[in-house]
Design goal:
This protein is mainly alpha-helical and 158 residues long. The protein is built from 6 helices and no strands. Helix content is 76%, strand content 0%.
């Protein structure tokens, strides 16, 4: 049925995105810029099918199709991370994909309603989401640095 066709399209779109991303010059870019470049590529590739993507999102929003929607999103964000060169095998593999799933999903939902030239509003939206993720990461690292300085002191006897 429709969910199977959507899943097949998602797989095809992921493969095409990875093939095209391999031709991008992203090696000198920082990771957020790489992610942005690959997500922008995916949106450009789907531009001719925007209405079909919008309708597919409606089908995947139905409770019985949630598994297909989640699987498509998971495979797409994994393909994006693979395309940008991520080879993590530790716990960050999960956190990176979960974080990008939120950013990517929100961006696609914004994109299907975007009528701006060359998806300019969507790309600005994506930039804000990626900047927000970066702020969270920097704040976490600062907190961990401060906590590491105080941890040994908490165990000393007076």
């Amino acid at each position: 049925g429709a969910p199977d066709m959507i899943e097949a399209y998602c797989d095809l779109a992921d493969r095409r995105m990875e093939e095209a991303a391999a031709r991008l010059e992203v090696s000198a870019m920082r990771v957020p810029a790489r992610v942005r470049a690959v997500v922008a590529l995916r949106l450009r590739q789907n531009r001719a099918h925007k209405e079909a993507v919008r309708r597919a999102l409606g089908v995947l929003a139905l409770p019985g199709n949630a598994r297909v929607g989640a699987a498509c999103t998971a495979r797409t964000v994994d393909a994006i991370w693979h395309a940008v060169g991520d080879r993590a095998t530790d716990f960050s593999w999960y956190t990176k994909r979960a974080t990008l799933a939120g950013v990517y999903s929100a961006t696609v939902l914004f994109w299907v309603r975007d009528a701006s030239e060359e998806d300019a509003a969507t790309l600005a939206f994506l930039d804000r989401r990626l900047a927000g993720v970066g702020r969270i990461g920097r704040a976490r690292r600062r907190f961990e640095d401060v906590a590491a300085r105080f941890r040994p002191a908490a165990w000393r006897r007076a």
